[in-house]
Design brief:
The protein is 15% helix and 38% strand. Helix 1 runs antiparallel to helix 2. It is globular, with a radius of gyration of 18 Å. The strands form four sheets. It has a six-stranded mixed beta sheet with strand order 11-10-15-14-13-16. The protein is an alpha+beta fold. A hairpin with a 3-residue loop joins strand 1 and strand 2. The protein has two domains: 126 residues, Transcriptional Co-activator pc4, Chain A, CATH 2.30.31; 102 residues, no CATH class.
């Protein structure tokens, strides 16, 4: 068994990336990109496309549609002041297909893609129920019930790009609990997704739900700034404590 699952679903106009996150994280991530009129694709590394975080409850509702217990499920996700309409539903054209609409991104899955997507969700759902809802002394980190935030309770912390670290400028919708990690006195390894980059810093969405600019000089592990998947970052502990990513 592995802790992470990633799968891409590409069509002629819209691509979707499935990212399970760690099995100790109660959320999954779906990212959508479009093909431009000039034939090039949007780039998540340049903050293009649309990324949505789904909770365990969301997964349960999506699986209800995939198993045809209901034929559709609609919801709205709120992040700061932005609202995103979302729908998962069975559609009929020449053949029946499964459609996913997130804002103005619409991804149609064919039969084989739907089978794979359903199997992924069922597998990941069981894994997360087993691993993300318990506290274990042997796990890589300990969670409280509120340690993983929904998308609408995320916090974005922006630091000015300097050689050191300046005081953060924060925009908060609600306070998320820091991860309680088993860590050494100097560095801490945490999971996160690279959402942006500059010459001197990475914008990392941590598993706690916090999105923070981290100076590259304080990241001690190798990383792929072009990857849209979950990675493990080894970062100076004092930086993570400063921004309440760890306690």
């Amino acid at each position: 068994m592995v802790e992470y699952h990633n799968k891409s679903f590409f069509g002629s106009k819209v691509g979707m990336f499935f990212d399970s996150g760690s099995w100790t994280n109660q959320n999954i991530f779906l990212k959508f990109i479009k093909k431009r009129a000039n034939g090039t694709w949007e780039k998540p590394s340049q903050k293009e496309g649309k990324s949505i975080k789904f909770s365990l409850e969301d997964l349960a509702n999506i699986l209800r549609v995939l198993t045809k217990e209901v034929l559709s499920w609609n919801t709205v996700h709120v992040f700061e002041e932005n609202k995103t309409s979302i729908s998962f539903e069975w559609e009929k054209g020449d053949k029946e297909y499964f459609g996913i609409k997130v804002a103005d991104y619409y991804k149609k899955l064919n039969y084989a893609e739907t089978v794979v997507f359903k199997a992924l969700l069922e597998h990941v759902f069981e894994e997360k129920i087993a691993h993300s809802t318990v506290n274990s002394k042997n796990s890589s980190f300990k969670k409280s019930a509120s340690s993983v935030a929904n998308a609408e309770t995320s916090e974005l912390v922006v630091i000015e790009e300097t050689e050191g670290i300046s005081e953060p400028k924060s925009r908060k919708t609600s306070q998320t609990s820091p991860l309680q990690l088993e860590k050494d006195s100097e560095t801490t390894t945490v999971g996160g997704v690279c959402e942006g980059k500059t010459e001197k810093a990475l914008l990392i969405l941590f598993e706690s739900g916090k999105q923070i600019w981290i100076p590259k000089s304080t990241i001690r592990s190798d990383f792929d700034s072009e990857s849209s998947g979950m990675q493990q970052f080894t970062i100076d502990t004092w930086v993570l404590k400063k921004h309440s990513v760890v306690a």
